[in-house]
Design brief:
- The protein has about 300 residues and is α+β, with helices and mostly antiparallel strands.
- Helix content is about 15%, strand content about 35%.
- The protein has an 8-stranded mixed β-sheet. An 8-stranded mixed β-sheet has the order 6-7-8-5-9-12-11-10.
- The longest helix is centred in the C-terminal third of the chain and has 15 residues, at about 225-240.
- It is globular.
- The mean pLDDT is about 95.
Length: about 300
Amino acid sequence: MSGIHHVTAIAGNALRNFDFYTRALGLRFVKKTVNFDDPGTYHFYYGNETGQPGSILTFFPWENAAAGRGGVGQAQQTSFRVPARSLGYWTHRFIEKGIAHQALEKRFGEAVLPFTDPDGMSLALVGVQGAENEPGWSNGDVPAEHAIRGFHGVTLLLDDATKTGAILTDVFGFKESAREGSVVRYTAGAELGHIVDIYEAKGFLPGRQGRGSVHHIAFRAADDAEEAAMARKLVMGHGMHPTEQKDRNYFRSIYFREPGGVLFEIATDIPGFAVDEPVESLGKELKLPSFLEPHRKDIENVLPALEGVTR
């Protein structure tokens, strides 16, 4: 099933990030681990009850990271899907909690509520008809009926949509489905994370990655064989040079920088987040890959404690 697997972004303070996504937005804390390439840093995963592909927003919380700057060559906005009738609830919740947000607007016939997280990351809730029939997870604060279901999609700000769009359609199984002004919409078959909008902004200032910006976007591959086939298409048909496969414990990944400058990943749906802890207790304990397990004590000593912040 084609679509977005996860989105990874850069945060500042770990506790603030944890509090906002688990309490203010009511997402489930699916996995507490570390950046495998920088084990002195947490890697947080938030999503729906089971950590389903298409629901996972992950963060590298780097306390001293400089603020990012939006611009060409970056993901401009990440959007979540909620039931259309829940947008009133969320507007009141944002006001009550002092969450920075904008007025409701219409995009491609859908109601959209843009907002930002404490690090300035651009987010949005999209009211989707029928989303109330999709499973919703409650944190005990946000009622399940109003809960975020998963991703709606991402918006990329690029100089030109053509070459990126060709990769979305030829390699990832998306189809161009609509145009609205300077925005080209691509749609995939998955229920969650099935939209990529490309906002063509030729001549705009290039973005700068940092706190509040997206680090990379991962697209789904069912398994290793499908991922390998995608890699071959990238090389043979689009002149891309993906990395060798990397084992991320919960999925296996390859990476490449797409023609517009955004870092793309292809991640397998398997084995999933329940590979090292049961679904009922996801996110409760620090999980480390086997090669870091011998260093657990040292790693735990440098990571900020999360005690005192409840989910």
